[in-house]
Design goal:
The complex is a heterodimer of chains A (145) and B (125). By secondary structure, chain A is mainly β. In chain A, 11% of the residues lie in helices and 40% in strands. The longest helix of chain A is centred in the first third of the chain and has 16 residues. In chain B, a hairpin with a 3-residue loop joins strand 2 and strand 3. Classes of the chains: A mainly beta (145), B mainly beta (125).
Chain lengths: 145, 125
């Protein structure tokens, strides 16, 4: 692991170190990159009938969220407005960690999903997208006589 | 307003893993405003505690995952948030206003009257 000769910015160094760690753990990242650490964080799960995606994106206007699914690739985009006061000379910002600005995340899901059966709900700052699988793809239980 | 380090935390019986929510802290003449990202946390599952000069924010996510779901990719693997701050003396913890909206907590702490800055006029001698 190479170290920068001039570690001027400790946070940039930590960030780089974190990326290297991720690379070490995830040996074959997807072609769409390491999305981990991006905004919003995503959890993906599957059931026999559907794929369930949870995007942890607090403080959004639900109307500003764009979700689209095309051939198994899901895109979630939107914008989070800053709540920081601008131009107030008497206000000082002590900690600034929350994400602000436009975001765009893309994840690859399986291609057996029904593009016409997508449901998206935004509740408590979590966007929950539920996509039904195509009926032909659903695992059928075979009874054994 | 300082953040407490893990070392300063009191030992608790089996401590559950928690996530550190990102925050913004803004100070103006009247007081301090804190925003914290707590996605998935409902009002009922949010706990704000002030003990002495320590402010503890704790929350639990309520995701209502469908039955039989198998997680295939998880960036959020712990459903709990916790963050502790040390307040300073000039803040009036009796005047605390909190609102939770779409997973964002907005906390307003007023400064005690005596702590508000006064303009001192400089006289030419």
């Amino acid at each position: 692991m190479e170290l920068s000769l001039f570690p001027r910015d400790m946070f940039a160094e930590l960030d780089r170190l974190q990326r290297q760690m991720q690379q070490a753990f995830e040996l074959s990242p997807s072609i769409r990159g390491f999305a981990r650490g991006g905004f919003p964080a995503l959890n993906v799960g599957t059931t026999a009938e559907s794929a369930e995606i949870y995007a942890f994106a607090p403080g959004l206007d639900p109307a500003s969220i764009e979700v689209n699914l095309e051939r198994g690739v899901l895109r979630v985009a939107g914008e989070r407005k800053s709540e920081l006061p601008d131009g107030d000379a008497n206000a000082s910002l002590h900690v600034n960690e929350r994400f602000v600005g436009r975001f765009h995340r893309v994840i690859t899901l399986s291609d057996d999903l029904d593009q016409n059966a997508v449901q998206a709900k935004y509740r408590d700052g979590v966007l929950h997208i539920s996509i039904k699988r195509l009926v032909t793809a659903q695992t059928r239980r075979i009874d054994i006589n | 307003m300082n953040e407490k380090t893990a070392v300063a935390r009191e030992p608790q019986a089996p401590e559950l893993a928690t996530l550190l929510p990102p925050v913004d802290v803004i100070e103006d003449i009247e007081g301090i405003t804190l925003y914290a990202d707590l996605p998935g946390v409902t009002k009922e599952k949010l706990s704000l505690e002030v003990e002495g000069e320590t402010l503890t924010i704790e929350g639990e996510m309520d995701l209502r995952v469908p039955e039989g779901m198998e997680a295939t990719h998880a960036e959020v693997s712990v459903p709990r948030f916790r963050r502790v701050f040390t307040l300073s003396k000039e803040l009036d913890t009796g005047k605390l206003q909190a609102a939770l909206k779409q997973g964002v907590l907005k906390l307003r702490i007023q400064k005690a009257e005596r702590a508000k800055p006064r303009r001192i006029s400089v006289q030419a001698g």
